Structure formats: C-alpha cells, structure tokens
Amino acid sequence: MDTKKIAELIDKERRLQFDQQSKYMDTLGLPRQNYAAIMKRLKKDNSQVSFNLINELLKPLGYKLDIVKA
Q1: How far apart are CA 22 and CA 33, in angstroms?
Q2: From its phi and psi, is residue 29 left (phi > 0), alpha (psi between -120 and 50) or beta?
C-alpha cells in the first residue's frame, strides 16, 4: 500500500473541506497535535500505519478504503 499517495490525498481533501486542521481532528475525536505525527508516519517508505486508522482518517473526507480480491 502506497501510503505517501494516501497522505497527499488526505492533506489535499482536508484543506478543501475543513477550514482548520483542528476542526478535522475534532471530527475524528483525536487531539490536533496527532495530525502531524500521523502524516509523518504515512509519508515514510515503510509505513506501519494500521488499515483501520487510514479508514478513520478518510471517513470524514467522504472516502473509504476497501481491499478486494481480484
């Protein structure tokens, strides 16, 4: 999973849909300070971010991540 692209998508959509980073984090129920730490982890090559956390970050932005067997 290429988490760098996911991080770019989250950052872009958050800027479009929310005035402030803190409002976005409030919808997630997380402290606003966690945003920078989470984004830093997502942008690493070998990211160890859980699938559930990525889904939670995408949900308020109107996205959903599915794993489908082809």
Answers
A1: 9
A2: left
